[in-house]
Design goal:
This protein is α+β, with helices and mostly antiparallel strands. It is built from five helices and four strands, in the order H-H-E-E-H-H-E-E-H.
């Protein structure tokens, strides 16, 4: 009888967090622009024969979008995440040898391919590409995607 009462009470209990609305996402690229930029980067890399992964993070490091082309190397997901973490920490492009990353070898060795997302001088997050034949090619595809939406980032 006691187990039944507890189960019934739990079934009708309202979690405490349900009363408070979730906080909004930190400043960052809107989802529609993030997906559009990511598709542009993927298309640019595909034109070079590379299947890549693109990740867009907001200024708090929350993933806004993660798109991985069919056939992209699974390791490209971890790589792009490391690159974006480096950007979030330094607010500069990844792979630049920033001294702030010296204590974190995984980030210091992430390589080029991720860029800060800016609206004027306001930092809105990180945008990274990984999976092509070189870091320089990844960065070029990232620049292509960001350039495609840059005028609409606010």
């Amino acid at each position: 009888m006691r187990v039944l009462f507890i189960a019934a009470a739990m079934a009708f209990a309202v979690p405490a967090y349900a009363a408070d609305p979730a906080p909004g996402r930190a400043p960052g690229m809107p989802l529609a622009l993030a997906v559009e930029a990511a598709r542009t980067s993927i298309a640019a890399c595909l034109a070079q024969g590379a299947r890549v992964t693109v990740e867009v993070k907001d200024s708090a490091g929350v993933t806004v979008a993660l798109l991985s082309e069919d056939g992209a190397d699974a390791a490209s997901i971890a790589t792009v995440r490391s690159r974006n973490q480096a950007v979030l920490k330094t607010r500069t492009p990844s792979g630049g040898g920033d001294p702030a990353l010296s204590a974190e070898p995984r980030l210091a060795q992430a390589g080029r391919g991720a860029l800060p997302v800016l609206a004027g001088t306001a930092f809105l997050g990180a945008y990274g590409v990984a999976g092509s034949a070189s870091d320089a090619a990844d960065e070029a595809c990232a620049r292509t995607g960001l350039a495609h939406v840059a005028a609409r980032i606010r």
